[in-house]
UniProtKB/TrEMBL annotation:
It comes from Arctia plantaginis. HAMAP family: P5C_reductase (MF_01925). This is Pyrroline-5-carboxylate reductase. Pathway: Amino-acid biosynthesis; L-proline biosynthesis; L-proline from L-glutamate 5-semialdehyde: step 1/1. It holds the Pfam family F420_oxidored. GO terms for molecular function: pyrroline-5-carboxylate reductase activity. Belongs to the pyrroline-5-carboxylate reductase family. Residues 5-101 form the Pyrroline-5-carboxylate reductase catalytic N-terminal domain.
Length: 275
């Protein structure tokens, strides 16, 4: 694709998206720019062919599509520093914001406050870190100025490493918490399941690998079989068998209520971060 792609903030999530993009060859690293306050933190990017700078304005000047990858509380600072270092305040830019909780309206107002671009469009996304290995999910909401062609470009960039779906903005909180925070919840589950096998005598490395593959495979079964997870669960539980004993232990530990509470807590916190 014949445009330069920028990242303002090259931390965990931006790096995962960068990895997804370069591993799938959907955009050449020579046309990717990244900025952040510590150049030494951007070594991975330059080692993989991107251009790194400490000036946000340089990314702004050189790129047509720019991912905002700073923490939500750094939005104003990042935009202020674009303003200070750009040579071309009035250019057309498509911003892609991954900032948890920050609405399109908030992002647009902040951009308008610090930058007098001739044309600004905003796409809000909620990605997740498994995009780094091509197994992510990313939802997005474009503002009303984003064209179908631009949506297609965004879907091509993100869809190379994620299931990429357009959603109405009012679902960004709940689905965003599930998608964005969920991997951390699942890492806990995988670690705990492996601990269970280790407790019964299994070697740690085998237990972890098998737990991860089992969780990945279970997700694939839900996606590919088209069956409800309750039915898939029943297919594993023989009457009087071992699995139903494990299920009973999980219910005693309120696993389902705990998972629901986790997504609820993350959704509430995401809303707070947006204020
Ligand atoms: N991590 C995740 O799983 C997900 C994160 N997100 C969102 O992604 C965003 C980034 O999160 P995450 O990657 O985890 O955080 P990180 O802390 O890993 O990355 C933030 C990056 O921003 C850089 N930075 C700080 N200040 C500025 C500035 N003024 N200008 C430019 N860059 C700056 C930091 O540089 P330095 O390190 O040099 O200080 C750092 O590399 C957040 O808004 C978060 O809500 C969304 C979905 C999932
Ligand atoms: O917790 C965080 O800061 C980010 C937001 C979404 C997922 N992780």
């Amino acid at each position: 694709m014949n445009f330069n792609l920028g990242f303002i903030g090259g931390g965990n999530m931006s790096t995962a998206i960068f990895n997804g993009i370069i591993k799938s060859n959907v955009h050449p690293p020579s046309k990717i720019w990244v900025s952040g306050p510590h150049i030494e933190h951007l070594k991975y990017w330059t080692e993989n062919g991107a251009t790194a700078t400490i000036e946000n304005g340089v990314v702004f000047d050189n790129c047509e599509i720019i991912f905002l990858g700073v923490k939500p509380d750094k939005l104003d600072t990042a935009l202020k520093t674009i303003n200070k270092t750009t040579k071309n305040l009035t250019k057309k830019v498509l911003f892609v914001s991954m900032l948890a909780g920050k609405s399109i309206d908030t992002i647009q107002k902040a951009i308008t406050c610090y930058l007098s671009c001739a044309s600004i469009s905003v796409v809000r996304i909620m990605p997740n870190t498994p995009m780094a290995v091509g197994a992510g999910i990313c939802i997005y909401t474009p503002d009303s100025t984003v064209s179908d062609t631009e949506c297609h470009i965004i879907e091509t960039l993100l869809g190379s490493s994620a299931l990429c779906e357009k959603v109405p903005e009012n679902l960004m909180g709940s689905l965003g918490a599930l998608i964005g925070c969920g991997p951390a919840f699942m890492y806990l589950v995988i670690e705990a399941l492996a601990d269970g096998a280790v407790k019964q005598g299994a070697p740690r490395a085998l237990a972890l690998r098998h737990a991860a593959q089992m969780v990945a495979g279970s997700g694939q079964m839900v996606l590919k079989s088209g069956k409800h997870p309750g039915l898939l669960k029943d297919e594993v539980c023989s009457p009087g068998g071992s699995t139903i004993c494990g299920i009973s232990a999980l219910e005693n530990g309120s696993l389902r209520a705990t998972m629901i509470n986790a997504v609820e807590a993350a959704t509430h916190r995401t809303k707070e971060l947006g204020k």
